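// run 5 | inverse folding | seed 20
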């Protein structure tokens, strides 16, 4: 039996996924993803893939059209936070739009990491609309091979 901690991001994300699955099961033919509803898309931007290797983690954030200078990448207490600002299309007044599916404005996305990382050695690169953050695991978080003595 585990104890639910409302302040753990992982637990809240799991609860949200379960609620999304519940609504998907209740209305599978709605024809539009929840991510495009006002307010929910901003919480999911940028879309992030997180992969684990023996040496650490690699996070790839899909963020086309974002000025690389506006990104702020930080790691604290095993939580990677990517924030920044996506500019609105220039030359078009906001009241001239008939339909808006591309968001603009400030964003922040946090992803919890399963193991401790070395925050001093985290690197980030932006290319072709993808922000790639490399997070090496802290030495104490890496698996250590134990030799077995034969008696």
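// decoded
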């Amino acid at each position: 039996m585990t104890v639910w901690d409302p302040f753990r991001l992982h637990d809240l994300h799991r609860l949200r996924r379960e609620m999304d699955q519940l609504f998907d099961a209740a209305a599978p033919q709605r024809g539009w993803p929840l991510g495009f509803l006002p307010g929910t898309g901003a919480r999911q931007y940028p879309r992030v893939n997180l992969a684990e290797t023996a040496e650490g983690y690699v996070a790839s954030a899909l963020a086309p059209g974002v000025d690389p200078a506006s990104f702020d990448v930080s790691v604290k207490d095993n939580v990677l936070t990517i924030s920044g600002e996506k500019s609105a299309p220039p030359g078009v007044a906001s009241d001239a739009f008939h339909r808006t599916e591309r968001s603009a404005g400030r964003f922040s996305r946090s992803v919890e990491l399963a193991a401790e990382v070395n925050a001093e050695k985290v690197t980030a690169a932006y290319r072709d609309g993808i922000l790639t953050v490399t997070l090496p695991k802290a030495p104490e978080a890496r698996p250590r091979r134990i030799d077995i003595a034969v008696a």
